[in-house]
Amino acid sequence: MATSLMCKSLGAACLGLSMACASPVALALADVIETPARATDLAPENLLTDVDRAGDRMVAIGERGHIIFSDDQGQSWTQAEVPVSVTLTSLDFASETHGWAVGHSGVVLHSDDAGESWEVQITGIEAAELAIESQEEAIAEMEEKVEAATGDEKADLEWALDDLYFALENMQADLDIGPVNPFLDVLFLSEQNGFVIGAYGMLFHTSDGGETWSDWSPKLDNSQNFHLNAITEITGGALAIVGEAGQIHVSVDGGQSWERREGPYPGSLFGVIGTGRINEILAFGLRGTLMLSTDLGRSWSMITSGTTATLTDGFSEDDRIVLVGTNGAVLVSGNGGETFRSYIRGDRLGVMSAMPASGMDLLLVGEGGAELTDAKGKNLK
Amino acid sequence: MSNPKHDKGEHYLTTPKAEPFLERLIFNNRAGILIFFLFVTAFLGYNAVKIQPDASFERMIPLEHPYIVNMLEHRDDLQNLGNFVRIAVEAKEGDIFTAEYMETLKQITDEVFYLNGVDRSGLKSLWTSNVRWVEVTEQGFQGGTVIPDSYDGSEVSLEQLRQNVLRSNEVGRLIADNFQSTIVYAPLYETNPETGEPLDYGTFSRELEEKIREKYEGQNPNIDIHIVGFAKKVGDLIEGIGSIAYFAAITIGLTTLLLFWYSRCLTGTLVPILTSIVAVFWQLGTLRLLGYGLDPYSVLVPFLVFAIGISHGVQIVNAMAVEAAKGFDSVTAARLAFRALYIPGMLALISDAFGFLTLFFIEIDVIRDLAIAAGIGVAFVIITNLVMHVLIMSYLGISKGGVRHVQNRGEKQDRKWRTLSYFSHPSVAPISLLIAVIGLGLGLYYKQDLKIGDLDRGAPELRPDSRYNQDNAFIIDNYSTSADVLVVMVKTPKEECTQYDVLRAMDSLQWELQNTPGVQSSASLADVSKIVTKALNEGNWKWFEISRNQTIINASIRNAPSGLINTDCSLTPVLVFLEDHKAETLETVVERVAEFSGKTSNEQHTFLLAAGNAGVEAATNEVISSAKDKMLIMVYGVVSLLCLLTFRSIRAVLCIVVPLGLTSILCEAIMAVSGIGIKVATLPVIALGVGIGVDYGIYIYSKLEKFLLEGKTLQDAYFETLKSTGKAVVFTGVTLGLGVVTWIFSPIKFQADMGFLLFFMFLWNMVGAIWLLPALARFLLRPDRMLAKARAAK
Exposure winner among A94, A144, B105, B536, fewest CB in 10 A? Predict the structure, then answer.
């Protein structure tokens, strides 16, 4: 009563407040996967997680569903229309026009106009349903095996079956909460054929440009469901995935089957790229860990990175390789990855990804947004 | 339509024939009354001396505004969010990575630790163990105190320190961006948990100066110390109240000189000064007995009371000198002076009081206190300067010199007044009106830029170049921080303040606000959750998101700063850091929040405005802007009504009130031009200016009417008016102006603003009464009709 009287004399500014103190109506914000990203000028200065090229156009993604593109080599940016406002984690263009972006809440977005507009292909709900489906198949299979087995073998299989049940229950509990898990990387080999990977060992594949997806995670040897952090195609056609706890998986048949490789490092790997030479893989991660394999991951050699920063992403272009990481780390190799020189950016903000810009210049994206720099990661301007 | 009081063309106010009852009562008991006054003065004077400075935060804010109601309701939940001091220790040469600097910093940290009022568990500096660096490793986190355990001041350990600082995430918070200063952050207890005593801001602030600033700047010449925080600001304000004593001395000195120049009589100078000071003692003593202290606003009232006392005392001295010149002895002269002046004097004082009372419509306690203090003071002036003054003078009499002075002012004075009387001349008056209209136009034009609220950067209570504001600017320039914080309180059912939906909604609000002009940044539990979730995922920015998984949320906020969650987890704040505290900024932000709150509040979470200094200012601005017009209408209504009752003519009211209106508008224009906003301090000025300013008009018009009714032409009547009362009016304007002009030098910015504006209003109202009133009279008054009416009444 007193409040509403007061409000009358105070005008519109407290209108909302009086509504708030009166009977609360069951209003709420729409879910983040149903809330379009807010148009904002701040997107290029806020957290960006990945960047890719769609023809001559640069496209970058980031927090709050931000997707921005630049047609002048990173000088100025335009914000795309995006139907979700989750943190996006990874981006890949298969052609000049067709690209995919993935992120939290298990969102997979697709653009067919070089990144100007995006639509949702699946969310974590469908992804979880797919995963539950394949889990149920695995359980059915296991139950048959248990049925057929005898003695000690049967007891072991029953244990395994229990594990599967337990995992299934977890998945269902997660799904009750909503689309909880994020995708962490995406790779499209063509406009039809693509992969998304993510938290707790998620791996999905499409062969129709994202119309339908199937759960390919059972093809990986990852029984503990560690996070999968990065996927890439190596010169020569092999595929490589790296992840939590030093995981390295390699496929030489387009992802149909995967082999687990043993690396020399037990900590998390966040990125993997090819060096540009056939079957050469460069994997990197926590505390400046950097390692090179020239035989599709069968053997590895540690490379001195010169930094203790976590390395997150990078690219190779001819003999030049650039890696980036936390605390403003920029690593540059001029000899195809044999040795690196490390630089630290003045602002020490985390760098999430890098891309060649005009000449030898770089476009870096990360904690502080997008930045054009020279070849050593020093800001132009 | 008969009016017996307008009998024989005499004005009933100025020359009542009979010896009134009151006069008889007073003059028949002169000694007894004076002795009684002596006791009252001794008693109230004793109390007045013991009055304490008091800068209570709550009295300066509009307690009934919904924002403030919300803030106070949840004050316990928001504890420690706002009350802290930050002490920046700057290395003048070089950077912080030297053994000497670190040693001084260590000593300062220890010293602050033992200051009374500091919440020791929350104390933060490079030297406290709660400031740590953290690094992600294969095994999880690795970390330690920023100052290495093995620190010994050597090059190696300083290098280690430098590394730790860079990893610590404190750059921009505890450590300046340029590595030339670091902060000692000390949260404060509002009340001492051991003794239960409230924090004494004055003492605390003095200790900061003596034990920290002076001591260590003296000890290590290479450091500068900068201190900011609410407690320091209040301490400086209390300090500022003390300096008012100098202004009082200067004012009294100047007034004495002026009064002597005016009266040329020592008694006629000292007695009004004495009685006016007595009025001040009575006023302060009464305030103390009523339980008030002296806040930075009401400390100015004694000046007003003194000035009003003097301006009325001078009328008595003037009248007594005139009567004495006619040959009356001092008692008779005093009686005649009393008889002539007690009614107009009381009328003027009552109109002053009504002017003050309109301040009551502003729902801010300091302003109401100001109204009470001023009201009491004016009431006492009636006793001290109309009664006590006359009685003392009846014993002492006017000196011969004073009488001679009155007799001597003749020809020269007359010529001066003759010239001024042309203001009422038919060919001068239109020019005056034209100038007034131009002035009005200019005033209205410039007044458009008038802003609500405080406009200066930093602490608006203190001057922009004050030590505090310089320190504040230093910290704003070198650290990622803002001094203007709006706190939105997010209310939820118990134990639900960390739910995903709540964090999500806060995050959305924050992003909405960050996209609002004037907002620098924002912080809440949602940010903590995102940052820690990222950190828990090995520092990978791809995980920078609020998890939907409650277990992860709980883990992410386990070590959240205590101010961000209340004890039963039913309230969590969103801190919005603003670029400034201009009214438009506050309005826009508050509007966005209200809009967002209206759209999204539900039974799970409600967004409540508003705490933080910017929230208080937003509420104050709203109260001020809605009270402003109400107050103007009231004060002009009251003044017009009083004039109408006295002079029974709308034309008379217009003659008196129009010049006041012009002054008010010009005052607002001056405020706009000189960058003074309408705020708690300046709003009362308008009421005070109008309430006191009307006195001139009353004095002048009542004389003018009297002479017109005697059958004089307008210009002659005005000449006579000026001759008899012009000097007293000018003198009143000057004494009132002098009474407030010294405030301009106050270290407290709003006192300076008040002094400046009141000075302008007191003087300009006087000019308006002498210059514009006669010009208006030329157009508005019909002397023949007035005369006819008076004759008909006879």
Answer: A144
